[in-house]
Amino acid sequence: MLLAGDPVYVGLWYYLAVPAVALGLTALLRARPLFLSGASLAVAITLLAYMCINWRAARPDGLVALGHLFSLPGAAVGLLLAAVPVRRARHPLAALLLGLGGLLGGFLANQLVVCNTVMWCGPFSMDIR
Predict the structure, then answer these.
(1) Taking the mean position of all CA atoms in its chain, how far away is CA 125?
(2) Which residue, of 26, 30, 79, 109, has the fewest CB within 10 Å?
(3) CB-count burial class (<10 Å; 0-12, 13-18, 19+) for 79
């Protein structure tokens, strides 16, 4: 972000607040450390995906951040749902994958709802008539 500017046009606070809330939420649940790593990786993946959308666009859009913002409640729900089975997981890699998959799964599910109700997201938006 410091070298390429602000690709999502929301300011530095957003890039700091989203991971802080995700990590704070999982820390409150006393999740395993690798679960936190998986959640951090998932947040980075979602932010990078939105950055790449604007970096590759012919006309970068300042409202693209709304798609990310509106999908964060689903990410939080997915993270909370994944935090339940992580306490019984014996293998450390399982905790990492649950953190990664929980946040990404919730984000994607909410993204599909957002793209088919309030926003147009290209291939994610289905033509239902």
Answers:
(1) 18
(2) 30
(3) buried
